[in-house]
Design a protein that fits this description.
single chain; about 550 residues; alpha+beta; Nucleotidyltransferase, domain 5; 7-stranded mixed β-sheet; 17 strands; about 15% strand
């Protein structure tokens, strides 16, 4: 192979706590160098930077400076690690969490730069759930009016999405709302910084901003929510760019940040979960990809349009041009395990883990894996971060049933792992009951490292699990989109086949354990349905919020 003739692309994945860049060879998808940059501000949850204004319950913000710093630091480091000439890089692609959205001026300046003491001037991270009352109003009005777009979102839109967050800004800080010429996804804002052109991608518009059949919800509908909200869609942008498309060319300023050649292709923005489909070469109908990390996002393509209860959305061209793209998800998965380890495990466990050179997660996993199915006597609901699918209610909360004075941390840890797998099974069953078959279940994301967890999922789902062949799924997927934008491949299907990586049936279910889990799953469904109306959860949250005011 003549390395002098090779071409390369950069993929940049903007996550919840950090951003990572990877250098990828265009010909075969080989990842040659990577770097991570941790956000200085991370997730802003209690007070604005500098110890300023206090934030209320369920807030989650980010800083745009953190995002630009990823371009300044991670991209040059990845390029240096790859040891490839910068002049052979032909394109850059990016992905973001969503809905992570910010108010900005007409030239793209984030309002938090001029109004740093106003919480609503800052970007709202995907897991900002303080807009739940606004989402509830949107859903109630849409159901009352029979809005045709509502079934495309499983009957409910989420508090995480653009309209609920925008309505919250309007009603809690109308000055910030009025000064925001743009209400723009971070996925599109970062592209603006790279190529100097404002674009809006079809993925975030469709899944997070209720764009269906050529338009957003009507002005009449928005005015019924609040007369001042009628023109909200004017802040969103009307022209949508296709995935894998060319957003523009790298500016001189962005070339200076990244060390990349000015003028290379910049791919249209995208969402972290959705680009991972290409990285796993899972762009065909029936392949559901579960990106499992702090949360889990389930995405898949289909040639059929169906209404799936509780799905996050179905969008034409939303994952791969020419197909319907479906999305569902679980608001917290890895976050649940981290919460439990951080808050509920005795020091003696940490000491024992340290003595053996294990992390606390590894120690608990080892202990949990020694149990037989059902031996802990527990069943849990995976709602510590609310429920994204299929109930679409972020004011729900976790439940653990069956605890006694003999219950140990490893028992609860295993029950929480099982609860997230039960939640995934319910999502798969809901899709198939709606006429959207799941023919292959593909796993990506950081939780792949836990082999016990993967086997539990295979047993509970009663199906083989395929796994992505990359530790950097979103970044690789963004790189694949960059290759298409640069003209190296005709379309995403061709690029995914050449550059994507997947091991089929890496985990297979054990029949005996699967049968035992069916009994526990039946109890999970009973518990799920009992608490599905959220009455007790909502009342408790209301009491908490009043006490915290």
């Amino acid at each position: 192979m003549n390395v002098n003739n090779e071409r390369y692309v950069i993929g940049v994945d903007f996550g919840t706590l950090s951003g990572r860049a990877v250098v990828v060879r265009v010909s075969d998808g080989e990842e040659l160098g990577a770097a991570v940059h941790e956000y200085a501000e991370g997730v802003i949850e209690t007070a604005l930077p500098g110890g300023g204004t206090h934030l209320g319950p369920d807030w989650a913000l980010q800083s745009p400076r953190d995002w630009v710093d990823v371009l300044r630091h991670a991209v040059p480091k990845a390029l240096a690690a790859a040891q490839v000439p910068a002049e052979q890089v032909i394109g850059i692609g990016t992905d973001f969490t969503a809905c992570t959205i910010l108010p900005a001026t007409a030239d793209g300046t984030p309002l938090c730069e001029t109004l740093p003491d106003r919480p609503h001037a800052w970007p709202k991270l995907w897991k900002h759930h303080a807009a739940q009352p606004h989402a509830d109003r949107i859903n109630a009005l849409a159901a009352e009016r029979g809005e045709p777009w509502l079934p495309r979102y499983g009957g409910k839109i989420s508090s995480e999405w653009a309209f609920a967050k925008g309505l919250q800004v309007l009603e809690e800080d109308p000055e910030v709302y009025d000064r925001a010429d743009r209400w723009i996804e971070a996925a599109d804002w970062i592209i603006w910084q790279l190529c100097g052109a404002e674009t809006r991608n079809v993925c975030t518009a469709g899944y997070k901003a209720i764009y269906q059949d050529g338009g957003y919800p009507s002005k009449d509908f928005l005015a019924a929510l609040n007369p001042a909200f009628a023109d909200f869609t004017g802040k969103l942008g009307q022209e949508l760019a296709p995935l894998g498309g060319l957003a523009g060319r790298l500016t001189a300023e962005a070339a200076g940040w990244t060390g990349l050649p000015e003028g290379i292709a910049v791919a249209v923005g995208n969402v972290d979960a959705h680009v991972t489909v290409a990285a796993a070469d899972a762009v065909r109908p029936g392949q559901m990809v579960a990106i499992m990390g702090t949360s889990t996002c389930h995405v898949m393509c289909s040639d059929q349009l169906a209404e799936v209860p509780g799905m996050c959305g179905v969008v034409r061209d939303g994952i791969v041009p020419g197909l319907w793209g479906y999305e569902a998800g679980q608001s917290a998965v890895g976050d649940i395990f981290a919460w439990f380890v951080d808050t509920s495990v005795p020091a003696s466990y940490a000491e024992r883990a340290a003595e053996r050179g294990l992390s606390l997660h590894e120690h608990l996993t080892e202990l949990a894996s020694a149990q037989k199915v059902g031996a802990h006597g527990l069943v849990a609901l995976d709602w510590q971060g609310g429920n994204r699918s299929v109930l679409v209610d972020h004011n729900l909360s976790g439940v653990i049933v069956g605890q006694t004075l003999a219950t140990r941390p490893e028992d609860v840890y295993r029950a929480l792992i099982e609860a997230t797998a039960f939640g995934a099974r319910l999502i798969v069953e809901t899709f198939e009951a709606a006429g959207v078959p799941v023919e292959e279940f593909v796993v990506a994301g950081g939780l792949l490292k836990n082999r016990f967890l993967m086997q539990v999922y295979s047993d509970i789902l009663r199906r083989p699990l395929s796994v992505i062949g990359s530790d950097q799924g979103p970044a690789l997927g963004s790189a694949i989109h960059a290759a298409v934008a640069a003209g190296a491949y005709a379309d995403l299907g061709e690029a995914a086949a050449a550059m994507g990586k997947r091991e089929t049936a890496a985990y297979r279910p054990d029949q005996e354990r699967a049968d035992a889990y069916d009994r526990l799953y039946a109890e999970y469904r009973r518990l799920h349905d009992h608490f599905a109306d959220g009455g007790m959860h909502h009342r408790l949250r209301s009491i908490r919020n009043e006490a915290s005011a």
